[in-house]
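Incident log, support desk, overnight shift.

02:14 A customer reports that sequence design results differ from what the structure should imply. Their input is reproduced verbatim below. On-call engineer (initials T.W.) acknowledged and began investigating.
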């Protein structure tokens, strides 16, 4: 089949950028979407043109590196109504001959475009560095049954830990809110006993960093949940808000730190 692509080309952060149209013929239904771009890039390189820059790593839906808008939706989620998907896991059998697709980078003030479809998502790293960790004593690993965790609590922590930090939640939100991402990270650690010591300061610091970096607030549209390739639930945002409110009676700057065993 033949696919027509209109791809956002932007040579750098200060370039204005524009859509450029390409056609890829003999597209196999077995290709992933990124393989479609690989083929296009081979064609461009052979013609002496600049290949399209896009980010990827695992190509297995694990790492969260890939991600751009396909016809206005992160990861082309609308082409996978039966399930969650990252763009690397989207396959060409979802499309039909003659389809025209508009590919754009994730748009958010906190995610500046680096080049073409690639954006700088290091703002997420800064939020994690602000509080998305626990402190434990170094040394031998403790026995696995030293701290018993109820199965339902462990399951819920793992549900939150599924977040791969791709940024689709931010890109889909009219406020460019990162609250689904931040709430997943806060909930993942806050649900577990090991995450209790820093729970209050984690909520305050990660939320303050999120605000500082220019992400917006949640206004309960839940586009984030709809496009999340890992099915992170909006309930985690409520959980994060509770942690934040609960933390406000504590001065995190004077709170004593205790190292977890
Ligand atoms: S390349 Fe790793 S999730 Fe897509």
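02:41 Re-run completed on a clean worker. Output:
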């Amino acid at each position: 089949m033949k696919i027509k692509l209109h791809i956002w080309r932007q040579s750098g952060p200060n370039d204005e950028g524009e859509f450029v149209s390409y056609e890829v013929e003999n597209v196999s239904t077995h290709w992933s979407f990124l393989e479609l771009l690989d083929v296009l890039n081979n064609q461009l390189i052979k013609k002496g043109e600049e290949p399209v820059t896009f980010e990827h790593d695992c190509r297995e839906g694990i790492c969260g590196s890939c991600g751009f808008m396909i016809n206005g939706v992160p990861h082309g989620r609308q082409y996978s109504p039966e399930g969650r998907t990252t763009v690397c896991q989207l396959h060409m059998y979802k499309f039909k001959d003659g389809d025209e697709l508009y590919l754009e980078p994730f748009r958010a003030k906190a995610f500046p475009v680096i080049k073409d479809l690639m954006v700088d998502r290091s703002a997420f790293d800064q939020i994690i560095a602000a509080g998305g960790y626990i402190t434990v004593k170094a040394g031998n690993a403790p026995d696995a049954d030293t701290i018993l965790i109820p199965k339902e609590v462990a399951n819920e922590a793992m549900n939150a830990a599924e977040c791969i930090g791709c940024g689709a939640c931010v890109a889909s939100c009219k406020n460019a809110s990162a609250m689904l991402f931040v709430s997943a990270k806060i909930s993942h650690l806050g649900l577990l006993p090991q995450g209790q010591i820093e729970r209050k300061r984690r909520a305050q610091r990660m939320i303050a960093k999120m605000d500082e970096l220019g992400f917006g607030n949640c206004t309960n549209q839940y586009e984030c949940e709809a496009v999340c390739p890992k099915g992170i639930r909006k309930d985690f945002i409520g959980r994060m808000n509770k942690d934040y409110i609960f933390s406000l009676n504590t001065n995190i700057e004077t709170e004593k730190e205790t190292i977890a065993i």
